[in-house]
Please model this.
Amino acid sequence: MKKLLIFIIMLLFCQTVYASEPPSVAARGAVLMDGESGRVLWGKNETEPLTMASTTKIMTAILVLEQGNLDDMVTVSTRAANSPEVHMHLTTGEKIREEDLLYAMMLKSYNDAAVALAEHIGGSVEEFCNQMTEKAKEIGAEDTVFGSPNGLDGHLTFEQHHSTAKDMALIARYALQNDKFVEIINTPSVALPLKGEGKNYFVANTDRFLQEYPGAIGVKTGYTNKAGQCFVGAAKRDDITLITTVLASGWGTEGKEQKWKDTKTLMNYGFENYKKEVIAKKGQPLKPTMVSYSQKEMVSTMLAEGFEGLFSQEELEKIELYVTQVKEMEAPVLKGEKLGTAEVMLGSSCLAKIDIVAQEDAQRYTLLEMLQYLSGKWNNFPLEIGL
Model:
């Protein structure tokens, strides 16, 4: 009996030690996101509007890569040259390639580089910021407004420049689909210009996450007095990509260290607790649909698409597939015809809707077959005549 009691205590202790605890971070707003699906895996005030400092430059880079030409020469304006620190000391009238400015902006977070790019692509900083805000909405970042291409917010009201932890993760997810963006943010250091002539610059990547976390692939750090220490990060291990955002992890030297701690805490929680799981397979068979007025009495059905994603063990136990399907219909039925919908539900949240389709054709009776069918029905109909 004593041995049994000890065993039970040890079992409970092990369960306590190895139970997965939710992450604890200092950031005011934070999120852990599945980089493939965009599903929020964990969040802390993830939809609360906050200032986001130089993580803003992720969106600046997106627009330049999509609308610009990397070999274009950018003429530096007085406004760009007079940008506050951190800056690369561009001078009025200096000409420098778009690509060189992108590297300088993303690796070292140079503010003058961001302004020069904004003016070159948008015609003005203000118009470029309008385009940034519109692009954010296209991506799905609904509560994001850009009033600055570099994240400097001292001259802006909160309403003019803000985002959320979730929105910034969505923006990063979109940016990571661009190979050139990924190439730039993963560059340890670079000597500029990459091509041609001009002033020489040496730019080293300030993203410590790249060196300190296995599987890290960027993305962008940031700090202002309003925003505090911010970071949007991404990491990939095997077939899992995670994206994190931490906004306002602190101020000063302590806050600078805290943003890295917060990011690593979220990443560790994600990789330790979430696995890629196949919830539904393309072609997965379901119940047949009955068919009338056809030689075939029923047609086989299947899922038109599959569904997989990152899930914790606790979530897997709650996932259910709700099927709404036509039980019976008249011929003709065509192969691939939609016969219903399967909803992947996690609690009250619908994660996916998948069409249910016919696996085969069921042709309607020909005229002769219909007459034979009706004749058979008539012959089997009981007829009673009372005299």
